[in-house]
């Protein structure tokens, strides 16, 4: 069979499906039931329940209704959860790019699209949400020298489209901490960097964007191993999510916990340590 040259990857579940999965697990535990108990009382396959509660599969409406009835969920709350199921099949603008994107990156984009606020630390690059197109293109080409033009174009398009969260009527609140190394590293030549620095200054002037530099003088700190992103959501049912990407290229997307807040605060405090004056950008 002739190869199409396209690497088909598993699609990441939508935020609504993850939200539904987490709520079903909480409801089951709240009802004092083990998965084995649910199997006996509903005849739903054990592996199906396991996959539903981890957002690995989308339940059918009748399956969800059976579970909600078993857990004693009131009608009004059932209606909300059934609506989550309906919405869980909706994808954002990035759906067309999904066959080309790693699952963890898909998940980041999906949650980013829904987030009310985002905190990010970058040790090596300007954060993706604040990159110019020219900088993004030069950066991707530099990091992946063998990339073909079609894949390069797709990656640049995705990165630019991600920035739409900062232009919507109620924009995402962005707090970006950037290591001084990312600001001083010349990516794509002087013209590209000058444009990128102007873009950062303009972005920092917007009321919903907070941009700060962690100086060289800060020394070693918890953010040095790589990227760190925390996303928070308006809905009370959505716990914060954390995306980390190490220098070794290991991306991880997971629920947030108290230790992540401590890590962010430690990085944030580092920016107050004295350093030589910044000559290429002031924010």
From TrEMBL:
CDD domains: HTH_XRE. Pfam families: DUF5753, HTH_31. Transmembrane segments: none annotated. One of its GO terms (molecular function) is DNA binding. Residues 24-78 form the HTH cro/C1-type domain. This is Transcriptional regulator with XRE-family HTH domain. It comes from Actinoplanes campanulatus. The lineage of its organism: Bacteria, Bacillati, Actinomycetota, Actinomycetes, Micromonosporales.
